[in-house]
Specification:
CATH class: Alpha Beta
CATH topology: Collagenase (Catalytic Domain)
Bound molecules: zinc ion
Strand order of the largest sheet: 1-3-2
Shape: globular
Radius of gyration: 14 Å
Structural class: alpha+beta
Number of strands: 3
Number of helices: 5
CATH architecture: 3-Layer(aba) Sandwich
Largest sheet: 3 strands, mixed
Strand content: 15-25%
Length: about 130
């Protein structure tokens, strides 16, 4: 299966805190981010990225602390529900933390390229885990 097929096949619906935090710990460990304090909140859609994103991460690089915000699945637009992949989204957000020193937080070419690389890497990591 390619990345899009894996996204469609991914478990859907709201995640229990237990499952979500288990995956957070797994990927935090895989990406060697154990020196960071990372937590996660499932929020209403309008609370995430001013309603313009389904996930976002706030971090403080000097103290290596981050919080990942994920919008509740049932509030996503119907056309995005089919492709929403909680675990791959989580990997994407953790890669933002991993590469935070390269992010200048502007819409510069550097940030756009970085974001594209982060999403490509999240697909690769996820696909590698589930490839048969
Ligand atoms: Zn991103």
């Amino acid at each position: 299966m390619n990345a899009t097929e894996l996204d469609k096949a991914a478990p859907k619906g709201d995640w229990s805190k237990k499952e979500a935090f288990k995956l957070l710990k797994e990927w935090q460990n895989t990406l060697d981010l154990n020196d960071w304090t990372i937590t996660m909140d499932l929020l209403d859609l309008e609370e995430v990225g001013n309603g313009k994103a389904y996930q976002e991460t706030e971090y403080e690089e000097s103290v290596k602390a981050a919080v990942i915000h994920v919008a509740r699945y049932e509030q996503l637009a119907d056309y995005n529900k089919e492709l929403f992949n909680f675990e791959r989204t989580l990997i994407h957000e953790l890669l933002h933390i991993k590469l935070c020193l390269l992010d200048d937080e502007e819409k510069s070419l550097q940030s756009r390229v970085l974001h594209q690389i982060i999403d490509d890497l999240s697909k690769s990591f996820y696909t590698t885990k589930y490839k048969k």
